[in-house]
Amino acid sequence: MLVRTIQTLQSCMSVDRIVVDTDSQEYANLALSEGAEVPFLRDPRFAGNSIGIKEVVRNAVGLLGLNETDSVCCVFATNPLLQSELVDLAHDIFTHAKFSGYVTPVVKYGFPPQRGIQINSNGEASMRYPEFMYHQSQNLEPWFHETAQFWWGRAETWLSGLGMQELILPIVVKEWMQQDIDNLDDLLSADAKYDFLKINPEIIRNEITILKKKYLS
User: From CA 89, how far away is CA 152, in angstroms rounded?
Assistant: First the structure.
């Protein structure tokens, strides 16, 4: 997945440097062999599951000595469905909007979270939001979540205290264009979507065209 991410970014018109931030010499060597930069290994203070990605990017931006107005794209290497056309489109939106926050793809929840249930320690279930018990799901306001693919932001924004979810200009993408991977079920879903897109490349091109008309016209 790391190799594919690097190769995808190498085909992006909007990306002129690919820096891999890792605390692993093994992954650093792999990144270097694919033509990416690894100017430093991540400090142990910024490694581990308890560290937020904002702190990691802020540290990297500081070490790279970037100008405050430089555009910085934080890309996760754990999403094999990343498309160069979407990265470039997001950069175009970010540039034209002169936005002070982050630009990132989002996707609509497959089922309204307002109708979600929670299960207690006794195995009993109840609605998390009982006020929506008798609302038809198709009439509820759609909710969205990030795709964990990438975020465009200026270096000064990454260095600021602005959280990655506080001020977002979203690009709403289709469910089949993304898959965050946290467990085996996610990986199996990603495999299926990847195989589908590999044999149907025109569907991505068509959707990018639609998104360009929606966000840049």
Answer: 11
Q: Which domains does the chain have, with CATH numbers?
A: 2-216 (3.90.550.10)
Computed from CA positions of residues 115, 121, 124, 130, in that sequence, does the dihedral angle turn out positive or negative?
negative
Each residue's pLDDT, cut to its tens digit, for the chain (217 residues) gives: 999 999 999 999 999 999 999 999 999 999 999 999 999 999 988 887 888 899 999 999 999 999 999 999 999 988 889 999 999 999 999 999 888 899 999 999 989 999 999 999 999 999 999 999 889 888 999 999 999 999 999 999 999 989 988 999 999 999 999 998 889 999 999 999 999 999 999 999 999 999 999 999 8
Q: What is the CA radius of gyration of the chain?
A: 19
Instruction: State the DSSP H helix or E strand holding residue 169, giving kind and residue range, or none if neither.
Output: strand 168-172
The answer to whether the beta carbons of residues 215 and 171 sit under 8 Å apart is: yes
Among 101, 71, 92, 88, CA closest to 215: 92
Tokens of 35: 């033509």
